Backbone:
């Protein structure tokens, strides 16, 4: 598997309004029920994404290890999961929806993240700030569904040549989505550069 090519298998869209909406969709060669289980079964989720704790049912609260937490707002197996997606007590509006549908003996996976983003963060990083993270997560899901490989360690992934190529490709793809949504080319270029540097900082030469 060329995991850089896997990044190019996804379709990305941005709605650049008062609330920012990033959408990431792609097809998996797996049945809807299997993809749903991978996304909602705590044991499987920890294998490709992050360990999760909490009351994992409609109306319950969840917490991802070292990441977001929130409330399970909608749960309609095996088609729709919607959760609030919050960092810290003072987080603004942020929700994530996952939609699954059958397509050509596989599954169309669509993730939609809607959030109020501080203007300084948006002007600095654009949609890639969350988009690259979601790309890496879905890459982990791809590896899990196809080979059962363990989740990507984002703390070291950027240290590999393959990891840097994946991050760069993802950041550039989100830049194209940003420009398609009306982002000025100079702001898009700066956002892509900043996002790439954040996820894959240059290493000091020894």
Residues:
């Amino acid at each position: 598997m060329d995991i850089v090519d896997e990044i190019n298998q996804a379709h990305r869209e941005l709605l650049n309004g008062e609330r920012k909406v990033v959408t990431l969709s792609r097809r998996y060669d797996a049945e809807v029920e299997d993809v749903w289980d991978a996304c909602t079964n705590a044991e499987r989720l920890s294998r490709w994404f992050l360990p999760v704790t909490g009351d994992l049912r409609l109306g319950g609260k969840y917490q991802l290890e070292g990441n977001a937490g929130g409330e399970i707002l909608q749960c309609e197996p095996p088609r729709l999961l919607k959760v609030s997606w919050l960092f810290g007590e003072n987080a603004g509006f942020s929700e994530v929806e996952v939609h699954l549908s059958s397509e050509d003996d596989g599954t169309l996976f669509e993730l939609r993240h809607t959030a109020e983003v501080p203007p300084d963060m948006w002007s600095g990083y654009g949609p890639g700030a969350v988009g690259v993270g979601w790309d890496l997560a879905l890459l982990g899901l791809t590896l899990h569904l196809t080979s059962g490989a363990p989740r990507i360690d984002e703390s070291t992934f950027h240290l590999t040549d393959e990891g840097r190529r994946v991050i760069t490709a993802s950041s550039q793809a989100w830049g194209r989505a940003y420009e398609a949504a009306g982002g000025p080319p100079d702001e898009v270029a700066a956002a892509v550069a900043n996002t790439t540097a954040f996820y894959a900082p240059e290493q000091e030469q020894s």
